[in-house]
Amino acid sequence: MQEISSLAKVSTGIEGLDEVTGGGFPEGRPILICGSAGCGKTLFGVQFLVKGILEQNEPGVFVSFDETAADLTANTSSLGFDLDKLSGEGKLRVDYIRIERSEIEETGEYDLEGLFIRLNYAIEAIGAKRIVLDTLESLFSGMKNEGLLRAEIRRLFKWLKDKGITTIITGERGVNTLTRQGLEEYISDCVILLDFRVVDQIATRRLRIVKYRGSTHGTNEYPFLIDENGVSVIPITSLKLDYGTSSELISTGLKPLDALFKKGGFYEGSSTLITGTAGTAKTILAGYFALGSCLRNERVLIFSFEEAPEQTIRNLLTIGIDLRPYIESNLLQIHASRPTLYGLEMHLLNVNKLLTEFNPKTVIVDPISSLVSVGSPVEVKAMLVRLIDTLKTRRINALFTCLMSHTGIAAGDQGTIEAVSSLADNWLFLENGLVSGKRQRSLLIVKSRGMEHYNDSVNFTISSAGINFAASSIPTKSNSAHGK
Amino acid sequence: MENEQRWELRLYVAGSTPKSVLALKNITRYCEENLEGRYSIEVIDLLKTPQLAEGDQIVAIPTLIRKVPIPIRKIIGDLSDEEKVLVGLNIRPMPLKNQP
């Protein structure tokens, strides 16, 4: 995203959100974060402060109108935040402001100067640069004079702005408004809406930047996650197309297949899609690819969505691909999980985590079409774009298998294939045909970016010795039919 | 005897704003009229002692707190409505005393 304004920004402390906001929150201004109950507003605020302290050295005040400081500390400790420690170091202050309607009687004029004084005292005590008000709307449940409250809230925002404090104000989603009390009217700088939905029994959290004055920002809904490391946003459109490209070549793991590419293999760091109906040897080709990587002494990570690791290994062993030694030496890891076990974002996050932990050079997803069952085609497509993007940025040799149905391509599959095929650099199409009542396996290179390749379909057989290309269809110098 | 009950009040203000001055004037008058000799009013100026705002959960200014007798009662505003204040503090007005 190109930043065109000179608006000063501060890091949000939330992974991925800086990217989406083109650099972070507007410095010294109020930001409204709204959403329904349980959508993660409080956590956004806590993380904003904690990361602000740890990463930007900006002390922060958390003003809670809902939870006591003890509750807040307990509730956020599971996310790895140690509020007590930060408070002890004088970098964080948690103030609990309790407003109990039943205890308060109103007579005559008043203002919220007490609140201002408390905030000011807390800010001055630690030299705060950030403050979170969670949720300011509780004032409305405690006091009756709505007109006065509104005027005071307006004054409060202006006051905080004048002090140059970056403020997060949280608000509960209203029926027809972003917040119950229409706080969005008073915050013109930055408004972020959080959403928590359950679709097909799979819960996803989403975030959207409703407005961000003076800044370009992503306009999509971005999925976000809350896990033991806090909140992270996964920007769909982070594909920057500025990753380095390589002209180094790697083997497909299968010599006769290498020969079908003019330069003798895939480009390093490219992504490859293998499509075919059931039983067309997609996983076997993936197995060769894994073996090839292991032989180069490069780490391989396999995500298996249909088979247990042992099963994959056993099956590949029957055709002479022995991955066991590499598993033992930890050069190869197989992660098997049911696609429906978690939402798409969780899958993506798992992938990201493993990429960081294991740092593989080769990643295989078998089959990527399984993920279709987890979300709508649009979501799956978005996720795949992000996945491929991540892999490309890391210059990982990626291989995806994709199952196609016999009756033609199912709707969901179509989306998957479209998404992946347009992003994949290489596309191999596998087919089982019938010739005179005999099965005829064939392979066709649909595309290979930046490389001349064999244009015809190539027949092959599978035996205990592995894949054998039919002699007649292997290109030789004389019958070479390379083309682009 | 009920009349022996003492009243400990605390008024939170923020400087000498008209609202704060008015509130103090009002509550002093109500006390003089109804609780003569049986009350004390402590005025806390949060501009001078901001750290005291937390203890009594002060948000609005002026805020009057009835510390004794318990339970604690809180009245916010300039206390201009006598009846509301007396009811809020649970002070039974003395009907015949000091009436003009």
Describe this structure in words.
- The complex is a heterodimer of chains A (484) and B (100).
- Chain A has 14 helices and 25 strands.
- Chain A is α/β, with parallel strands linked by helices.
- The longest helix of chain A is centred in the first third of the chain and has 18 residues.
- The N terminus of chain A is likely disordered.
- In chain B, 25% of the residues lie in helices and 24% in strands.
- Chain B has two helices and four strands; from the N terminus they run E-H-E-E-E-H.
- Chain B has a four-stranded mixed β-sheet, with helices on one face.
- In chain B, strand 1, helix 1 and strand 2 form a beta-alpha-beta unit.
- The termini of chain B are far apart.
- The mean pLDDT of chain B is 83.
- Strand 6 of chain A pairs parallel with strand 4 of chain B, so a sheet runs across the interface.
